[in-house]
Design a protein that fits this description.
About 25% of the residues lie in helices and about 20% in strands. It is globular and about 45 Å long. It has one domain (about 10-85). The relative contact order is 0.20. The protein has a four-stranded antiparallel β-sheet. By secondary structure, the protein is an alpha+beta fold.
Length: about 90
């Protein structure tokens, strides 16, 4: 990874393919989520960033996994509320 560039979900996806990962930066202003966590939280190309937050996107508009400020849940709720809703959905019946 080049110096000065933000990490992306692709950096950790290969070793976290089966588990959601959400890594907060020590200052509380940003976090890195892997593809599993983004999917569980419903964060997609079409997801608008919450007020006061940024979903960092690549050149194609896809979320890179970097979430800043309100998108990272500096107040603690945006990302985790979406994750809880995803986890609390009923499982599909066979």
């Amino acid at each position: 990874m080049a110096l000065g560039k933000l990490p992306t979900r692709k950096l950790i996806d290969a070793v976290t393919a089966k588990n959601p990962v959400f890594i907060s930066r020590y200052d509380g202003h940003s976090a890195l989520a892997n593809s599993v966590a983004l999917k569980m939280a419903g964060v997609t190309k079409n997801t608008p960033a919450p007020e006061g937050g940024v979903i960092v996107r690549d050149a194609k508009g896809e979320p890179t996994g970097v979430l800043k400020d309100a998108a990272r849940t500096s107040s603690g709720e945006w990302f985790h509320a979406r994750r809880r809703r995803a986890w609390n959905r009923p499982c599909a019946q066979p």
